[in-house]
Structure formats: structure tokens, C-alpha cells
Amino acid sequence: MTTLVVRTRADLRAALADSPRPIGLVPTMGWLHDGHRALMRRARAADRTTVVSIFVNPRQFGDPSDLAQYPRNETRDVAMCEAEGVDLVFAPAVDEVYPPGFDTSVIVGSIAEPLEGAARPGHFPGVATVVAILFGLVRAERAYFGQKDAQQVAVIRRMALDLAIPTEVVACPTVREADGLAMSSRNVHLSPAERAAAPVLRTALLVAREAWANGERSGEVLRHRMRAQLAEEPLANVEYVSCADGSTLAELERVDGPALLSLAVRFGSTRLIDNEPLG
Ligand code: AMP
Asked: The whole model's pTM is what?
């Protein structure tokens, strides 16, 4: 089976007109790894047509140098899609996604405000806008997203519900390296020393999870446990640690129900995030 690569909205529509349903969509920014592969496998198992989009979305980057440095290798990505039995890759140019005159932004409310929303102004409007376009173009029965970006999943679910988009949003578990580091396209930028230090994100989350499992219910104590663990690693520059309500993502004083531990940490210029749901 060969994977068909299309680059225009028209070619995507034409290819999908002949494709069996249900359709599963996996939106990505490329530089694919085993985390993306796991999403493709979920789609392949549930849907008759699997579509992967590869688009480094300029609107979700605040920092122009972050966008310029984002790793890209379409040949390798398409080969990986082919190996996973993906039917269709949509790899559009920026002008195809945002044609001249494009003038709409999708702004999701309070769920998009804390954490990544506060740390990266403009990020979630960029994400929600591109995902709304992809949902409109592909009209998939299901779309697959990684729990690694837990707030992103919550933002997209909110958007799909509010805008009456019928695509079901499916969240899939975080895929990790053997030492616990969450797979990410950005990991390629870590120096050897930073790469060796990076599993501290996972360690910090697990230390807090263990405290919670042993009965600790103070949000501040759990945040402190994570900060203390991260402080052991001199290369780690902490941007935030959070112990938040699992549905609103508001910071918790007490953990009485489902919660989300999450953190963002910089190693040099590379920014990594990870999270751990509780309960
Ligand atoms: P990205 O290409 O980084 O924008 O990610 C595309 C999709 O893959 C998003 O839904 C991510 O949450 C998901 N993803 C990225 N890394 C992982 C991972 N380590 N495990 C599971 N899903 C992931």
C-alpha cells in the first residue's frame, strides 16, 4: 500500500471523496516519532481511512526563532506514515492553510488561559484555528491527540463541542523513552548533557504522584515536591509547576478529585512539558 501525499485543499477533498469511512485524522507538525506512531495505530485500528496532517503551524509559535528551528524532514515523515499504513498525508504550504485574505481566529475561553496559555500568549488561538480548519477539511469521524499535551486536548474538546464540530476527539497516552522522557520533536535540540538531565521532568511528576498516593492532598505541598526535585538538576530552568483541577485546570489548594500535575522546564533554549493525571 502506498501513502498518497496531497498538498492542496482541493486535492485533499478529492482524495477523501473516494475514501472509505470512518476517517481518522492525526494532526502533527512532523518530525514524527513513536508518540505520533501510536496515534496512527489507534486510527488504523478504529478507522477505515487514516489521514495524517504534517504542518508546522506558524500561528501557534510566539517566538520566530522557535518556528525557524522547528525540525523538519518530510521524506522521513512520509516513510514513517507509509510504514504505519497511513492512507493519506496532507502536507500543505502555509498559504494553502491560510490563503490570502484569511482573517479568522478561534479563541477558546478559560480552559486555554492558564499553564501553556499563560506561558505562550497566542499559542492556543493558533492551535484552535488550525485544528478547526483541519476538522473542516477532513471531516473525520475521529481525531487523535496525545495526552502529553493535556491542555491542548481539553482546548480542542471544548472547541469541538462549542462549535458543533462532529469529529470525536480521542486522547491517547503519552509515549516515553526508556528513561521516562516524554517523546517530543523538540528533544532533538537537547545537548547530550541536557538530554541526560531531561528525565527529571518525569521524576518530579512521579515524586508528587507518590506523595499524593500516600495521602498528601495539599496542592502547594505537591507543587513544592516537584519544584524541589527539579531544583536538584542544575540544567533545568523551571517555567511553571502546577497541580490543577482536572477539568478546569485552575490551581488547587486541595486535591479532592481528579487533578493534573504538569510542568514546563527549559534546558538551554529547549522548552519541554510533561504532565501526570491524578485520580
Ligand atoms: P506535534 O507534532 O508535537 O504537534 O504533536 C502532534 C500530536 O502528537 C499531538 O496530539 C501531540 O499531543 C501528540 N504527541 C506528541 N508527542 C507525544 C508523545 N510522546 N506521546 C503521545 N502523543 C504525543
From this structure: 0.98
